[in-house]
TrEMBL record:
Taxonomic superkingdom: Eukaryota
Sequence intervals crossing the membrane: none
Official protein name in the record: TF-B3 domain-containing protein
GO CC annotation: nucleus
Main location: nucleus
Organism the protein comes from: Linum tenue
PROSITE patterns (UniProt xref): B3 (PS50863)
Taxonomy of the source species: Eukaryota, Viridiplantae, Streptophyta, Embryophyta, Tracheophyta
Alphabetical list of InterPro entries matching this protein: B3_DNA-bd (IPR003340), DNA-bd_pseudobarrel_sf (IPR015300), REM16-like (IPR044837)
Keyword Nucleus among UniProt keywords: yes
GO MF annotation, one: DNA binding
Limits of the TF-B3 domain: 61-152
This protein's UniProt keywords: DNA-binding, Nucleus, Transcription, Transcription regulation
Places the protein is found: Nucleus
């Protein structure tokens, strides 16, 4: 797929998610669930243990989810050093592949070192929450295998 056509297609596909302008209404934040420090640390430890067991010839990193990653703006910043060493230098469609093999296209923006369009769909489809930890393993130049460890949240 031509990168520019792919980005245009992805923006069209996810435009309502990424390009929506705020209507000025306030959001109901009362149903947000925040992970405790202990739950966040436990999920991160599980992710780091899994990360250590993965094949080392694929570059990878662990990312702990914050509320801002999984609600609201749905922007996911990636480690700058990882991006500089391993990811494309131009805007690119990056595919996130979950543990079941389902593929989710996202837009990688190298100038901001993060994932934008399509990230919301992935986060929502996988019910990501504050405190969850994800392992991103670069299995192809434009594809991450993503492993999810969940934070236990007491409600």
């Amino acid at each position: 797929m031509n990168v520019h056509l792919g980005l245009k297609w992805l923006r069209g596909m996810y435009g309502s998610f990424v390009c929506r302008v705020s209507s000025g209404r306030s959001r109901d934040l009362s149903n947000r669930v925040y992970a405790s420090d202990e739950a966040r640390a436990e999920a991160l430890e599980k992710a780091e243990n899994l990360h250590a067991s993965l094949e080392t010839h694929y570059p990878s990193f662990v990312k702990s989810m914050l509320i801002s990653h999984v609600t609201g703006g749905f922007w996911l910043g990636l480690p700058k050093s990882f991006c500089k060493m391993n990811l494309p230098k131009r805007d690119e469609v990056m595919t996130l592949i979950d543990e079941e093999g389902n593929e989710h296209p996202t837009i990688y923006l190298p100038r901001k070192t993060g994932l934008s369009g399509g990230w919301k769909g992935f986060a929502v489809d996988h019910n990501l929450a504050d405190g969850d930890a994800l392992i991103f393993q670069l299995i192809r130049p434009t594809a991450f295998k993503v492993y999810i460890t969940r934070a236990k949240v007491n409600i």
